[in-house]
Amino acid sequence: MMEINQILADTLYQDIEREEPKPVITIKDKIIATLQNFICITGLPKSYKTTFAFHFIASGLINKPIFDITVKLAKDEKICLIDTETGVHEFSKQIKTLKRTLKQNKLPSNFTAYLFRKYEPEVIIYAIEQIIIKDKPKILFIDNLTELVINPNDMIESKKIIQFLKRITSEYNLVVVTLLHLGKSNPNNSLGNLGSYASRGCQSEIKVSYDKETNLTTLEPVLMRSDLYFSPIQIFWDTEKKQFIQNLEVQQPKKSSRKFILMDLNNEDHYKRLNVIFMSHQELIYNELIEDIKKLYGVGTNIAKQQVLPYLLGNNFLTKDKGIYKYKK
């Protein structure tokens, strides 16, 4: 372990002018990821999370927006994919689709992929850091984060993985894009304590859902810490063209900025955010709670103080006693 003097020197805040970080990933011009952060793409199994992840990758490799998704990657910068679930034959099909999207017969030299389906979590975790050291990617995809733990409900194991993501993004100055399953019993929340900790630590969380009746796959924001929410994106598989097409017809025109409307949120929306806020705390003081509300609701200080907190108290989501706030689960 590092000596305490070294830790203090490393963590001491320096009051200097800092440049605004340039976005690495945007959706409809809204900031999704900047360097030294990780994001989560969540969804039920077979909801086409991986399909969207490959379109993120394709956007970076061709340096063009795809389905309003823009990934900024210079020619000498790399993308790396860690796949923990897919077998080699199924993965080969995904790579063929990627090459068709890129209109190339061979994969670009700045893209690498590793398949870890048969390995245990501790091996995958160790290998990820070694791959980062060797390949030096700007963006690292982990599909699926669940396979980095034995039990996604184990608090200690889950917290350790999130701290690992925070450390590697900071130390190696990269973006990590994680894919994570939603719980089948509660599809509004990502799986177990791992999902709750990931929601609390990520820069953005976006959800993918599939509608069997319409054959439409939707990408929508769940949590946005660095920008306003974007309007949902829908795609579908065109059997004649044998490719995914963006469904533009159903999209309603949106204003350039999204005004926060508290009443647009239902009880499940509030419970999801409060579960994250109070995951590691039984109680919070006023200033701490306001800061968490700002992050989890994507609002400013005034709205957090004047709208969200009074609503949560008035509707018995929270209790207050002598300046201490508790969550009424």
Which short descriptors sum up this protein?
single chain; 329 residues; alpha/beta; Rossmann fold; Arc Repressor Mutant, subunit A; nine-stranded mixed beta sheet; three-stranded antiparallel beta sheet; 9 helices
Secondary structure tally, helices: 9
Average pLDDT level = 90
| Count of discrete structural domains | 2
The CATH superfamily of the largest domain appears as P-loop containing nucleotide triphosphate hydrolases
Number of strands: 15
Rg (C-alpha, Å): 20 Å
> Level of helix content?
25-40%
Computed structural class:
alpha/beta
- The fraction of residues in strands falls at 15-25%
CATH topology of the largest domain: Rossmann fold
The CATH architecture of the largest domain can be named as: 3-Layer(aba) Sandwich
CATH class of the largest domain: Alpha Beta
Largest sheet: 9 strands, mixed
What can you tell me about this protein's structure?
The two termini are 38 Å apart. This protein folds into 2 domains: 228 residues, P-loop containing nucleotide triphosphate hydrolases (Rossmann fold); 66 residues, Arc Repressor Mutant, subunit A (Orthogonal Bundle). About 2% of the residues have low confidence. The radius of gyration is 20 Å and the shape is globular. The chain contains 9 helices and 15 strands. With 329 residues, the protein is an alpha/beta fold.
